[in-house]
Amino acid sequence: MAGLTHMTIAEARDALKAKTISSAELTGAHLKAMEQTRALNAFVTETPERAMADAARADAALAKGTAGALEGIPLGIKDLFCTEGVLTTAGSHILDGFKPPYESTVSAKLWQAGAVMLGKLNMDEFAMGSSNMTSYHGPVKNPWRRKGANAELVPGGSSGGSAAAVAARSVMGATATDTGGSIRQPAAFTGTVGIKPTYGRCSRWGIVAFASSLDQAGPIARTVKDTAIMLQAMSGHDPKDSTSADLAVPDFEAAVERGVKGLKIGIPKEYKLDAAPKEIQDLWEQGIAWLKAAGATTVEITLPHTKYALPVYYVIAPAEASSNLARYDGVRFGLRVPGKSLDEMYENTRASGFGAEVKRRILIGTYVLSAGYYDAYYLRAQRVRALIARDFTEAYKQVDAILTPATPSAAFAIGEKMDDPIAMYLNDVFTVTANLAGLPGISVPGGLNADGLPLGLQVIGRAFDEETVFAVGRAIEKAANFTAMPEGMA
Q1: Domain that holds residue 178
Q2: Lower CB count within 10 Å: N or C terminus of the chain?
Q3: Dihedral (C-alpha) 306, 308, 313, 319: value to the nearest 10 degrees?
């Protein structure tokens, strides 16, 4: 049964169609793996009965020859996606007991494609964090450990439960969301592949909102091909989401093996940070060499407003969060803490329901939107955001894609940076520009550092050109030949 949990989505799909395995067997193996990896705290809610019912339905569809693109494939769903009748908390106490009466568009598309639901995955509260330490349900643990040490490491955030579950072989793939790097950073920390598609490629309907102009759903899986297969099913126009792009979905899987011969790859000089460890720079240089060997050429480019990206993000994202999170008041759903008056009930509910990081961002957001500061902070940040987007537009006149490191470090120990919010925010330094510009970006594992921990490379593409991103990502994946696994997972 262990062999079943080590299959890729592509391999399992082919085996299911050939009827050499059944979805019931595949799902059962993953439910057993979930039991064996519970110490990671990757799941908020497990749905074994639903999973086996889904598997039975999938086996019936496979027998009839009416299989969907993901028929019988067991997946995990980040707890930010509303799932009809299944607890959805966004990692927060304030949504205790909330079972949505509707399904998010992205998860509905996965079920339409035949996927099996294993459960809901842990995450930073309301997707606010880079470590998965802010979850009300407790921290997720990375299945990786430093060589010769047993200190527990973070899996990254906010999609840490998704990344940890994929790395631990307890799910074949998982949904995730990315507001400032929350797919790509945890993928890099766990040796998995994660893609944030172009803003608008996947519907945001039914996903609990953090920062509406930045949030985007995407998949985490173990190979570039698997993420392409998942994204194909997750994408598409949704009239219920006004920001959803009314564009045809390309054949992402076909694009994976397209190759990079003749492509021009941009290398932004602003991403060469003096403070970044040498191993990050060395991996970047190795990635450049791999792409050259595969037939691409590299061009040094400049993205001059990159240095303003983090401050811009930490004005815009909290501002939007303060607005989005105003709806959690104890009246309609989730937690309610009584008070002597309506105002006191609001205060008690929000004081008890939100964690420290969420409160911090609501306060920052309310401040930058307040009278006297709106022009000085929020409007100025929006203007700089436009300049950051323009930098990419200019760069793509010269190049087809951009290669950068995914993170400024490998995974760090649980609790290591929790007393320093600025150090924690710096985890997104390489990823946040793609969100501000609405561009697709993928993290692909490139190797291990001196401590034996995974490091990732990031590819950023033009808007709605995920095909090139997948092709470049696959070229890196082939050259890196990353086969390392967390200890005990072999």
Answers
A1: 2-257
A2: C
A3: -150
